[in-house]
Write a structure and sequence with these properties.
mainly beta; 16-stranded antiparallel barrel; 2 helices; 46% strand
Amino acid sequence: MIRRVRPAAVSQSNQLQQENINVKKLTLAALIAGSFAVTAHAQSNVTIYGIVDAGIVRETGGAAGSVTKVTSGIGSQSRLGFRGTEDLGNGLSAIFTLESGYKLDDGTVDSTGTLFNRQAFVGLSSKTLGTLTLGRQYNPLYNALSKIADPFGAGYAGSAKNLFPAGGVNTRVSNAIVYTTPKWSGFYVEGMYALGEQSGDNTAGRLFSVGFNYTQGPLNASLVYNNRNNDVAATGTTPAANRDDGKNTLLAVNYDFKVVKVFAAFERDKGLNSSPIPVTNAFGYAVAPRASLEADDALLGVQVPVGDTGGTVIASWMNKNDKTANNQDARQWAVGYTQALSKRTSAYIAYAKIDNKNGAGYTVGNNNEVGSGDTGFNLGIRHTF
């Protein structure tokens, strides 16, 4: 006897089979989505960035005479950098930065023999615990000077670096350990300790710096203490050299009133290498200028936006008060103008003049160069990417 299957039963069986297939598809899709989620969670994010800055510089007043040149990095040093992060979960990320400076005027690297001369560090960053990094990094003293104190941002002819001590390890430090706390209502602390790495003496050549910072709304402020050990460990038959520490204490403030942004800074420098002269004897004196072992530096400045044109007028006045018997004081006044051409590109013009007293030898430079005379003029263009 042949048993016939009714159409309704066949339809119900096909429906069950289709539902099983759909369940399997959904399960497979969920597994694939989960796999992608895990991959995305651990995925690294690397950014390539940089600055292309060049212009015409005119310097006068130096012993070698006036000079006109095409210069790279007048407002901000030309650079190429790589910045990366990887989400490790639970608010923790791995981070790194590799940044190299170059000269746009001739295409050479900014520092011969060093690939990532500007920054080279790796570390961990936590939303709740702060950030810890190891490598070549900015000194908190320079961060406060360039980002908070100086309306010229440590660039152009009006750079605060012309009178404030910002050369060498006062800008970037190798072999450095930096810890930055999270922000608490706009307040955070930044600390650096750099090893001197001299055999036989763990303190020789070391540097430490700590900055107490506040940034919220229109107010930005920073108080930084920087201490540089100038000792040299013994090597072979050469005995150790014990020297005084170089100490810098900087208070920097700016406040944005919208119609004008006001800047002010005061720094106390004391000890060896606390206030070096950028150029040994730029003006050809019979007796070369002497680096001060005790000095006070002061700055007042403004940024004034020009309506909605994208233009900004910049001006500053600085004073170096040498408190030693040499009394080699110096004053600088500077004025500049930047014009935004787009979100990434701007044109600029700047002029600065230094008045040296009693054989002082300070020069008008810019972000990339220390300068050769007591006056400087800039005209250039800057692009970021």
